[in-house]
């Protein structure tokens, strides 16, 4: 009887040890996600982490987090952004390839990962960094200045004599049309580096020969004292414009009498979508 009791105690003890071991996590640490292209700016805020094909979670960077995995693991990290600059609308940016690594995870120890992602090669669009000319129509003061963090940049201003500003971006191969967008619902984004002392509106003109041009405001952007990058989602607007022939982007701001001058500096404008 004593032997049976002793055996039962050993079995219970071993079972508890196993359960405790299963509950001990390994840890993954990610400080930043880096973009491989040296001439390209990004604002990657989150890591979308998959382990062995399963979504582990979305983590704001820098991050250190537990995972209930042990041994060899296939890890994929997707670069996350704030969609339209809104913290509550986080998404994995569709135009960056994921970072993939096979590594050993050990319980109660930390594995540090330094992901490097690259821009996908099957993308198309337009890019303007002001170093090789530009294509703008503006009804107020616009100039190209030097000395920005990425070289030359565009600058718009409103003085006391001006009440409103409208600037239209006109690329030679843009506006977008349904002929060069791969399919309805395919991701389309506007990327913009900017700093501003005033709120400004980004929108689209939707053009059709059979109806008047539709002006659609998309996003009011708040002032930023330092250079910031924003990813503006154009997908729904382009997809819903059934029958439209062309699109173009506009920037608009109104005079704020509390400021001596309304000023917006911007650079690295990229309209991006998948190839047809």
Counting H and I runs of at least 4 residues, what is the number of helices?
2
Structural class estimated from helices and strands: mainly beta
Q: Helicity range of the residues?
A: under 10%
CATH fold description of the largest domain: Jelly Rolls
Number of domains: 2
* Strand and helix order: HEEEEEEEEEEEEEEEEEEEHEE
Could you walk me through the main structural features you see in this protein, from its secondary elements to its overall organization?
This protein is mostly beta strands. The protein folds into two domains: 2-117, Immunoglobulin-like (Sandwich), CATH 2.60.40.10; 123-274, Sandwich (Jelly Rolls), CATH 2.60.120. It is built from two helices and 21 strands. Strands 11, 13, 14, 16, 19 and 21 form a six-stranded antiparallel sheet that branches. Strands 3, 4, 6, 7 and 8 form a five-stranded antiparallel sheet that branches. The chain has a five-stranded antiparallel sheet with strand order 12-15-20-17-18, with no helix packed on it. A hairpin with a 7-residue loop joins β6 (71-82) and β7 (90-92). The longest helix is centred in the N-terminal third of the chain and has 21 residues, at 2-22. The chain is elongated, with a radius of gyration of 25 Å. 26% of the residues are buried. The model is unreliable at 1-20 and 171-175 (pLDDT under 50).
């Amino acid at each position: 009887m004593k032997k049976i009791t002793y055996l039962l105690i050993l079995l219970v003890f071993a079972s508890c040890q196993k359960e405790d071991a299963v509950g001990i996590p390994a840890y993954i640490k990610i400080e930043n996600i880096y973009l491989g292209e040296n001439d390209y700016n990004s604002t990657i805020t989150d890591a979308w982490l998959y382990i062995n094909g399963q979504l582990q979670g979305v983590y704001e960077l820098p991050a250190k987090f537990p995972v209930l995995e042990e041994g060899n693991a296939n890890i994929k990290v997707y670069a996350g952004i704030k969609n339209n600059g809104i913290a509550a609308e986080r998404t994995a940016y569709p135009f960056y390839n994921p970072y993939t690594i096979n590594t050993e995870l050990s319980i109660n120890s930390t594995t540090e990962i330094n992901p490097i992602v690259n821009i996908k090669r099957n993308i198309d669009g337009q890019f303007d960094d002001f170093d090789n000319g530009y294509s703008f129509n503006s009804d107020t003061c616009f100039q190209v200045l030097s000395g920005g963090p990425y070289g030359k940049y565009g600058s718009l201003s409103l003085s006391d004599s001006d009440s409103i500003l409208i600037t239209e971006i006109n690329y030679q191969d843009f506006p977008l049309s349904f002929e060069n967008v791969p399919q309805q619902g395919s991701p389309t984004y506007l990327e913009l580096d900017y700093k501003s002392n005033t709120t400004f509106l980004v929108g689209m003109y939707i053009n059709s020969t059979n109806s008047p041009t539709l002006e659609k405001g998309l996003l009011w952007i708040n002032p930023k004292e330092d250079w910031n990058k924003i990813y503006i989602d154009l997908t729904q607007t382009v997809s819903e414009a059934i029958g439209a022939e062309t699109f173009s982007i506009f920037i608009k701001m109104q005079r704020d009498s509390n400021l001596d001058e309304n000023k917006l500096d911007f650079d690295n404008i990229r309209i991006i979508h998948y190839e047809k």
